Amino acid sequence: MPRPPYVLLFEEVVPGALPLTIMVDDLGAVPLFDSAGKAGAFLGSTDFGADLEAVEVSGAGLTRALASVENEVDYVAINPPPVGEGPMRVRMGGLRELIDALQQNQEDNLFGLGGLS
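RE: above sequence
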């Protein structure tokens, strides 16, 4: 389970914007980063265009963003390295499984009390 911060890439930073999706070994995925620096390094190594921005999102924001593309892709690519840094090894996870885990975590932490009981 990825831990915050959660950083996604967006073409527009507006409510309802869809996160960037990519292909990794013929599998559609949403790139998910744990820092703006890693997202920027990845983005700087691609030819996706200058309009993309790295945006830190909350757990609820991540859940909404992933759910918005779950009919298009099945995976999350965690911290994909910059393009051209040798063979690209990317840790992948199931998109639906991550959404379910995030929703469960949000339900367990309904009042924002974290691990307090």
